[in-house]
Amino acid sequence: MFDLIDKLEKERRLDKNEFIMLLSNLTPQVMNELTTRAQRCAVERFGRKVFVRGLIEISNICRNNCLYCGIRRSNSNLERYRLTPQQIIDCCEQGHNAGFRTFVLQGGENRTMSTSEICDLVRNIKAQFPDSAVTLSLGEWEYEDYAAFRAAGADRYLLRHESATEEHYARLHPAEMSWTHRMDSLRQLRELGFQTGCGMMIGSPFQTVEHLANDLMFIQEFKPQMIGVGPFIAQSETPFAEYPNGSMEQTIAVVAICRLLHPSALIPSTTALGSIAPEGRTRGILAGANVVMPNLSPQEVRSKYAIYDHKLASHAEAVEGLKLLAAQLATIDYQISFERGDYSDK
Ligand code: 5AD
Questions:
Q1: Which atom of ligand 1 is nearest to the CA of 200?
Q2: Phi-psi region of 343 (alpha: psi -120 to 50; beta: other; left: phi over 0)
Q3: What is the arithmetic mean of pLDDT over 64-89?
Q4: Could you tell me which residues come within 8 angstroms of residue 301 by beta carbon, excluding any fewer than 6 positions away?
Q5: Mean pLDDT of all residues belonging to the chain
Q6: What's the rounded Cα separation, in Å, for the pair 210 and 320?
Q7: Any long-range contacts for 20-25 (C-beta under 8 Å, 24+ apart)?
Q8: DSSP tag of 68
Q9: Over the stretch 275-290, which tens digit does the pLDDT of each residue have?
């Protein structure tokens, strides 16, 4: 297996069968070798620094019905909310005072806020905080909408591809959702000049190592500026309530492989990773992740953004817990960086 890890590190690519082989042999020795090299790769590029992004969950209203997600439209056991533009600006202000220079507006897919309202919001945030980046994570729209968001000043867009295997995508999503539209959206976002993020859950129902190999082949080819990877976590109000959670080890391995594939990518140690085990966040960083996204949403809506069960939304995961986050990072000799942290492949 070490020859494959060598190849991955030197050539920054593997064949599909090699990914399958590697993912099927995650022994402690292989894990150790992968994470050691991935961490070294990240430290060479970024130092022992982790970028922070302020996450604002602007609405949990969603027209989609993804089988894994707790804010799916069929979940009638959830109080729905949407923040007003002013509330969102207030969150940014609080975050900016705390030092954040990236704001991630994330929300369910809905049209309660129109394209032009979102554009106004982006323009206002950029006018008020000109030194900050705005990242949108608002699901799928059409090319004209993405173009309008970009023209309004949005810098980055996160849209997990969820699965690069159409058949697997179709088992995670209802028939009305189109894998092709999602993959096309990613290419359009990139073409429009967004720093673009894709990603997938690890250990989602029906996922095989072959599916994961397809995801890694896609990442290798698409070279997204950002890669979001976290374990699947069952949510009690979804059809996947009884499925097992994704494993920490497999998630860590995929984070490390992504780092070795794409040394300059921005890779978060995700909230989902921190939610399955207390040491998840730091393990992600020690496997090459270099971003964390503390929650800037108002306290009273946080529990409503229930995409999965037992989601962390306080302490080191939240703006008021920055000191705690810094202390956690200090235990592994890392520091928070408040830089904007744009993608650069220089
Ligand atoms: N477990 C883990 N991640 C989830 N997401 C949605 N539901 C879950 C879940 N049950 C992820 C999806 C989505 C992102 C916002 O959160 O990958 O793209």
A1: 17
A2: beta
A3: 97
A4: 57, 60, 81, 83
A5: 96
A6: 41
A7: 20/209, 20/210, 20/213, 22/253, 22/257, 23/209, 23/212, 23/213, 23/250, 23/253, 23/254, 24/209, 25/1
A8: T
A9: 999 899 999 999 999 9
CA-proximal residue: ligand 1, atom 3 (nearest): 232
pLDDT of residue 315: 66
CB 192, CB 146: distance < 8 Å? yes
CA distances from 11 to 3, 6, 263 (A): 12, 8, 11
Whether ligand 1 lies within 6 angstroms of the CB of 72 is answered as no
Nearest alpha-carbon partner for 267 in 239, 312, 226, 210:
226
Burial status of residue 12 (CB atoms within 10 A of its CB: 0-12, 13-18, 19 or more): middle
| Edge-to-edge strand list for the sheet holding 335-337 | 291-292, 49-52, 335-337
CA–CA gap between residue 282 and residue 171 (Å, rounded): 32
Torsions phi, psi for 60 (to 5 deg)? -110, 15
How many A from CA of 235 to the centre of ligand 1?
10
Find out whether 63 and 111 touch, Cβ atoms under 8 Å. yes
Ligand 1 pocket member 230 (CB < 6 A)? yes
Q: Are 95 and 321 in contact (CB under 8 A)?
A: no
Question: Which neighbouring-strand residues pair with 55?
Answer: 104, 295
Residue nearest to atom 16 of ligand 1 (CA): 307
Amino acid symbol at 115: T
The response to whether residue 311 sits with its C-beta less than 6 Å from ligand 1 reads no
User: Is there an atom of ligand 1 within 6 Å of 50 CB?
Assistant: no
Q: What is the pLDDT of residue 177?
A: 98
